[in-house]
Design goal:
The chain has helices spanning 17-73, 76-85, 115-124; strands at 99-101, 110-112. With 125 residues, it is mostly helical.
């Protein structure tokens, strides 16, 4: 074998099989770590969403209960009962008619507010 131009032959070094296996195993290990991290984060996110859904459901039911309570407290029957029992107020009768003066008419003449009294006053005139 003759070598032209006096170029020495290249020394080809055999690749070590251990390094190649180390790289492959390292890649697989890194992939497993990433997969485990992703799964853990997704499970944590699912748990957080479930917890917030429960909180939202509790708040919704509480809001509905408050709405029912508000409607009960604002009912006309309850307000009328409190007015009669605690405040000693009664419904309007003929004896409780209040007369106000009409600013356009004669200031000495009073006109009734109650419609029944208005009807009676209209008949009398």
């Amino acid at each position: 074998m003759t070598i032209k131009n006096n170029i020495p032959p290249k020394n080809i070094q055999a690749k070590k099989p251990g390094f190649c296996w180390f790289v492959i195993i390292s890649l697989i290990f890194c992939e497993l770590l990433v997969y485990t991290w992703v799964r853990t984060e997704s499970i944590q996110t699912i748990l957080r969403v479930s917890r917030e859904q429960e909180v939202s459901a509790k708040k919704t039911s509480y809001r509905k209960a408050l709405s029912v309570e508000r409607d009960r407290l604002k009912s006309d029957d309850r307000i009328t009962r409190i007015a009669r029992t605690r405040l000693n107020l009664f419904t309007d009768t003929v004896n409780q008619t209040i007369y106000l003066s009409d600013p356009l008419a004669d200031p000495l003449v009073n006109y009734p507010i109650n419609s029944l009294t208005n009807a009676l006053a209209g008949r009398k005139k």
